[in-house]
Amino acid sequence: MDIERYLKDRVEDQMRYYESAANSAKRKHFFIQTAIVILGLVVPVVVNLPNSWGSTEISQDFIKGAVTILSLSLAILTGVSNLRKYGDLWLTYRMTEELIKQEKFLFLTKSGKYYKDEDPDNGFVQSIESIISSEHNKFRTIIEESKRPMKENEK
């Protein structure tokens, strides 16, 4: 595979993938965190609703049901956030995209370690593959950490 094809088929493809993955993880992270904040604020308001609102009577059963549903939703979203680690994934994907982009521009401008390099193509491919491999290892670590039960001192 020549370097032009590698740039197009591997480097550009990986940059698009990491950009898309980072944007997706960011959207999910912000949605879940916003919902957690809103639910955390709404629960105490619902708990403290008066028995009547103007001419409308509010039953205690309705309030209990609403608090239960809101609290369960809050617990579920918190659990999903802790399990899926969208915030961590967003940062990892974004950092990987930027590292690949930086390496690409150093290579294309023959700057940094590529300046006066005897075989810049080989070094470039090795650097890109190392960045991608490192990201895969970080991803595995993030996922494995989310699967481990919490230790007593982390609770």
Quick tags:
155 residues, 3% strand, 78% helix, mainly alpha
Produce the secondary structure layout.
Elements: H1 3-47, E1 52-53, E2 56-57, H2 60-84, H3 86-108, H4 120-147
Antiparallel strand pairs: 1-2
Helix pairs in contact: 1-2, 1-3, 1-4, 3-4
The helix fraction, in percent, is: over 70%
Instruction: From the alpha carbons, calculate the radius of gyration and give it in angstroms.
Output: 24 Å
The helix count comes to 4
| Averaged pLDDT | 91
Overall outline: rod-shaped
Residue windows where pLDDT falls under 50 for at least 5 positions: none
The largest β sheet comes out as: 2 strands, antiparallel
What proportion strand? under 5%
Helix/strand-derived category reads mainly alpha
Straight-line distance between termini: 51 Å
Please give the number of β-strands.
2
What order do the SSEs take from the amino end to the carboxyl end, as H and E?
HEEHHH
**Strand order, sheet with most strands:** 1-2
Task: Walk me through what this model shows.
The protein is an all-alpha fold and 155 residues long. The chain has four helices and two strands, in the order αββααα. A two-stranded antiparallel sheet has the order 1-2. Strand 1 and strand 2 form a beta hairpin. It is rod-shaped, with a radius of gyration of 24 Å. The relative contact order is 0.12.
